[in-house]
Amino acid sequence: MSDALLEVGRLNAGYGEMAVLRDVSIAIRPAEIVALVGSNGAGKTTLLRALSRLIPSRGELRFAGRSLAGAAADEVFGLGLVQVPEGRQLFDRMSVAENLRMGAYQRRDKAAIEADLERVYALFPAVADRRRQLAGSLSGGEQQMCAMARALMARPRLLMVDEMSLGLAPVIVDALLETMSQIRAQGVTVLLVEQDVHAALSVADRGYVLETGEIVRAGTARELERDPEVQRAYLGAADPVPAMPAGRAHGAP
Amino acid sequence: MRAGNPARSAARWIALAAVVALLAALPWCGNAVLVQFGISALLLATLAQGWNIIGGYAGYPSFGNSVFYGLGAYGVAIAMAQYQLPFWVGMLLALGLGVAFAGLLGLAVLRLRGHYFAICTLGLALVMTAIVSNLPLAGGNIGLVLPLLGNAALFYELALGLLVLATLTVFWLARSRFGLGLIAIRENEEGAAVMGVNTTLYKVLAFMLSAAFTALAGGIYAYYITYIDPAGVFDLALNVKMIIMAVFGGPGSVLGPVLGAFILSVISEILATKVTSVASMFFGIVIVVAVVFMPRGISHLVAHVRQAGWRYFVDNVRAHRL
User: Fold this and answer.
1) Are residue A185 and residue A242 in the same domain, yes or no?
2) Is 80 exceeded by the pLDDT of residue B246?
3) Which of A155, A187, A212 delimits the end of a domain?
4) Exposed e or buried b for every residue in B242-268, given b needs 16+ CB within 10 A?
5) What is the pLDDT of residues A190-243, one digit of tens each?
6) Do both A72 and A122 map to the same domain?
7) CA distance A217 to A209
8) Are residues A182 and A233 in the same domain?
């Protein structure tokens, strides 16, 4: 897998004494959309924080042929490994335009930043309409678009989107997934971290299933969608053997 | 100051330069009481401006700035009283002590946020008083006596110079990439971190910059007042004063804290001589009124009250859900 943009080998991470990720290995090739799915508490956000070097980790971590061991979070960002964090983390009391400019925080190429602003506004017309409004006053869907637009302003090579669908209406999730394909068409590789397995696999090329800190399944999106285990646990398919006590399978919509 | 109109901004610069020139000429009017008051007001304005960097821009409400002030005062006092070194060497020591302490302290406590950071720095100010009281080099709890210079005008000009330097630094900060990073940290630290701001480095640098001006102000104060003791210079009440002045004037603005310090110094001076009973309550009343009616300070008020009118105050009260 030497052609991979991101290579993660036997990565271990956690908070203090508590281990969350155990020997996680994944690889992402350029211009792929990869889905990382799993239920609440599986360690998805922890993995993203470890990849961004916001928390320390052990194991192999290579991005664009460079080892990230010992790199600081702002260096990793500078290399083009950019995340759209869970909960969006916008600057609520700044305008939408100011938020987008914060995405270009590390860049000094003024003319290119202006051009990218227009490109990003074209990608998210709803965000463009509200460029002078405070980010905190936007609706949930607009905030998610604003957060993605802000991340794109950093000119990412790998965009990692955490829980994009959380709290959003299905029709907005569909629109965002459509945009995701356009972003990939512009040459940006995407790692989609989702609880909404069905949504994530609908646009992804490949996927990984994370369960209690370990990768338990890997394959193409089609393979995972057809996998009976994945269907039973995440896609709400009827249990073939009705041995499970009632209530267990009701969790999934 | 953000006005794009170059003629207007030039006019503002000229007006500001005129104000500074007028202030600089004040000692020659010959009123000794006025010069004394001026020194105290200028030093307080410098402290408010110093606090503005960490409290107003980075959003970390520091109660540790009185420690930097005390360290600055002791830096000058130890150099001059214990080693008979010149004043400027003392100022270098003051700067070194304040900045080094801020760096070490910052690495430890700047990972705490909001109230936790405030309480932790509050505790440190008390600890420092106890430590310095037991240091023979610092004269224990008796304090140190510095040589008497008796040139109030010189101290006045020094304090004015330091305030101008601090304000120019904040002016630069407000327009720099560094300052933008601090504002991002204040607005959403997690968001700043994922947008490539080195939050730890920036917070510690802001704390050190804040400490530099605060310690230098303490150094000037020590030589001016000629006698310092631990309880006098590691004074939490002084820290509260700088916060009130900065918040009243407008935290996170360039001129707000200076304006706040001047206005409050004048009012509290008048009250202290005319109505002593109200004077001790004064700062308490100011902080309550400021937080309820104009939480973003005088500078924001001046910029927005003209278009919003009384609605400005009503909206602020509503925002608090009082």
Assistant:
1) yes
2) yes
3) A155
4) bbbbbbbbbbbbbbbbbbbbbbbbeeb
5) 999 999 899 999 999 999 999 999 999 999 999 999 999 888 888 776 655 544
6) no
7) 5
8) yes
Chain A / chain B CB contacts < 8 angstroms: 52
Q: Do B196 and A78 touch (CB under 8 A)?
A: yes
Residue with the two structure tokens 């068409």: A185
A196–chain B nearest CA distance, Å: 23
Domain identity same for A65 and A182: yes
- Roughly what angle, to the nearest 10 degrees, separates helices B236-249 and B32-51? 80
Residue of B nearest to A103 (CA): B195
Could you tell me the pLDDT band of residue A246, with boundaries at 50, 70 and 90? very low
Compute the distance between CA of residue A124 and CA of residue A122 in angstroms, rounded to an integer.
Answer: 5
Yes or no: say if B258 and B163 are a contact pair by the CB < 8 Å rule.
yes
Tokens of B11: 């006019």
From the list A52, A92, A94, the residue facing B194 with the nearest CB is: A52
Identify the domain boundary among A132, A155, A178: A155
On whether both A18 and A115 belong to a single domain, the answer is: no
pLDDT tier, B113 (very low <50, low <70, confident <90, very high otherwise): confident
Same domain, A144 and A230: no
Would you call A154 and B193 a contact, using CB atoms and an 8 Å cutoff? no
Q: Which of A33, A151, A35, A145 is nearest to A82 (CA)?
A: A151
Q: Report which of B277, B227, B220 is spatially closest to residue B98, judged by C-alpha positions.
A: B220
- Total domains in chain A come to 2
Q: Which value does ipTM take for this structure?
A: 0.86
Q: How many Å separate Cα B318 from the centre of its chain?
A: 30
CATH number of the domain within which A230 lies: 3.40.50.300
pTM: 0.90
Report the C-alpha gap between A172 and A144 in whole angstroms: 10
Q: Which residues of A134-161 are buried (b: 16+ CB within 10 A; e: fewer)?
A: bbeebeebbbbbbbbbbbbbbbbbbbbb
Domain co-membership, A24 together with A124:
no
Domain that holds residue A141: 90-155
Residues of A in contact with B198 (CB under 8 A): 72-74
Q: How far apart (Å, rounded) are the C-alpha atoms in residues B263 and B211?
A: 24
B179, closest residue in chain A (CA to CA)? A105
pLDDT band at residue B312 using 50, 70 and 90 as cut-offs: confident
Residue B294 makes CB contacts below 8 A (sequence gap 6+) with B300, B301, B312, B313, B316
